[in-house]
Amino acid sequence: MIQVYGIKNCDSVKKAVKFFKNNNLEYILFDFKTQDLPCEKISSWLEKTEIKTLFNARSTTFRNLKLKELNLNEKDQEKWLCKENLLIKRPVVEYDDKLIIGFNQENYQRSFL
């Protein structure tokens, strides 16, 4: 089963969900706004990808929290991801012990079709 993590109103998440629907691929959406993501999940993702890929320093949440001023190191970024799930780059897609972050049409076609 494909597990999609993000928020329903995020454009990238919408594109991913549309891709799965259009290709008749079953998925489950984990919504950061209605569900709390355990820090253990973030740690498991960081075993498969780098923090700079997962941490969205271009997000509205990043700007609103004024995190740029804190000059966060990787450990601090991980702690913030645990406290504020909206700092996670979206969508995060898990399937077959793999992880895809963000939406890229060509990458999705290679990975899922």
Short description:
With 113 residues, the chain is α+β, with helices and mostly antiparallel strands.
Question: What features would you describe in this structure?
Answer:
By secondary structure, the chain is an alpha+beta fold. The protein is 42% helix and 16% strand.
Keywords for this entry:
alpha+beta; Glutaredoxin; 4-stranded mixed β-sheet; 113 residues; single chain; 42% helix
Question: Main sheet, how many strands, which sense, barrel?
Answer: 4 strands, mixed
Order of strands, widest sheet: 2-1-3-4
Kindly report the name of the CATH homologous superfamily. Answer: Glutaredoxin
Quickly give the structural class: alpha+beta
Please specify the SSE layout and strand pairing.
Elements: E1 2-6, H1 11-22, E2 27-31, H2 39-46, H3 51-54, H4 60-64, H5 74-83, E3 92-95, E4 98-101, H6 105-112
Parallel strand pairs: 1-2
Antiparallel strand pairs: 1-3, 3-4
